[in-house]
Amino acid sequence: MDDSAPLSGERRLKEIVDHVFAVGDAAESSALEAKVGVDLTEKSGKAKVVKFILGMANRMQHVASARFGGSAVMLIGVEQGSCPGIYKGTEGHELSDAFRPYFGSHIPRWDIDRVPVDGDREVLVVIVEPPRDGDPIYFCHKSLVVPVPGGRPTVLLADGALYVRDKTSTRVATGAEAAELFAERGRDASLPADPDLSVVGEAVCIADQDDVLNAWVQSSVEAYRTKVKAARAARQAKEAERQSWQLPGVVLGESLADSIGLASAKIFTTASSGSAEDRISNWEQRTRTNWPNSIRHLLEVFAVPVQFTIINPTDSFLNNPQMRIVIDHCDAVNSVPIGKNMCNKILPPVEPESHGLSIAVPDIDLPNIRPVRAVRELSWEKVGTGVVVTLHPEALRSNTPWRPFRNDLILYVQDPLVTELQARWAFTAEGIHGQLAVETTVQVDQQTNTRTLVCDCLSGQR
């Protein structure tokens, strides 16, 4: 099939459907995708089409122009050797209403067409128009998540994600692809000067977490065994002292001995060396299993957030601005305040002490105590191997610094060779139809690591 010719009429669409029926996945390209089993009333079906539209709208012009006159086509209801179609009745305005929240204020140019199949079914054709000069970069503006019982939710669409189309799939853009797209579409003459983004602070490197875990387990076990040994010695000494107070023919009761301070020292509930070793084994297993959560909590409580500041250098009042910052090869958490007894909950000892008795320390759930953050001012999503941060002030006054109500984002990396993070930010505002795109870097703090976070936790200080 010649895919260089523009899309023109039902006969051309029927030709494309027949080609997919004949060769299946081999027909897919940077401008053609075919799906079966897509239910547009379900989240997964909606996500497939939204992602396709965004990815095709973000194609480079020279890439798009090589196929279908620059247009892109998704066929829903045909595969190799099968053309079941979908039931008739899908309306374009209904899909438009359903997709609009994911497109934001910059809506790609797209439409639907149909190729009839037998009876009450048809192949639905989604057509994305060719990219043009002056087009913005089309970001996804809303997440679409499917809960997974007993597991992590599946993210079908991520707020802030930049989707692109490669030869046969639609996915999140790489750093190089985003930079190329920013270079083609990023500059808009309608904004007289670049907003200034200041990023103060550094990402944390936790590449040493395995070594720290082993050291923490070893030191905790050694300290516990030392205390158990000392407790047994004290118990034996007290028992010998109590026996010396026995009168002829009279055994001094333990309750009376307690009242005069002669009972055995109950520093730990360690009846035998066997029970102590069992406690050690159980504690070590729990500690190693929960270590990823402990690392996350250490970062949330003891790492220092990155501070974002935007300055509008123009003489204009910018209404409803939005800045999206794509930071490569990192992860993120939100900062939370330190709470009562939180350190013992993050890094519980083998057997905590409380007035001479062994107590059980419940698992901590830091997200439940996280303070409410300012709505929409700072949000972030994990996208691919990086993080997309969205800053959304209500407005930017001229030459006045703006900061989110809560600058609570903590960035971290796990690769010891990473010394700085590449970041790109794009800016839009009401009345500005294009986007400014600027590259920057975020440094990685090599001095703050898992070991220093653990030390801060053990000292109980941020």
Strand order of the largest sheet: 15-21-11-23-22-14-19-18
Q: Which descriptor suits the 3D outline?
A: elongated
Distance between the termini: 65 Å
Strand content: 15-25%
Low-confidence runs (pLDDT<50, min 5 residues)?
249-271, 354-375
Number of spatially distinct domains: 3
Number of strands: 23
Q: Structural class, from secondary structure content? A: alpha+beta
**Number of discrete helical segments:** 10
Radius of gyration from the CA trace? Answer: 31 Å
Largest sheet, strands/sense/barrel: 8 strands, mixed
Integer average pLDDT: 82
Helix percent reads 25-40%
Describe the protein.
The N and C termini lie far apart (65 Å). Helix content is 31%, strand content 24%. The longest helix is centred in the middle third of the chain and has 36 residues, at 209-244. It is built from ten helices and 23 strands. The protein folds into three domains: 9-184; 200-208 and 299-343 and 362-459, Immunoglobulin-like, CATH 2.60.40; 210-287, no CATH class. The strands form seven sheets. The chain has an eight-stranded mixed β-sheet, with helices on both faces. The protein is α+β, with helices and mostly antiparallel strands and 462 residues long. A hairpin with a 7-residue loop joins strand 6 and strand 7 (154-157).
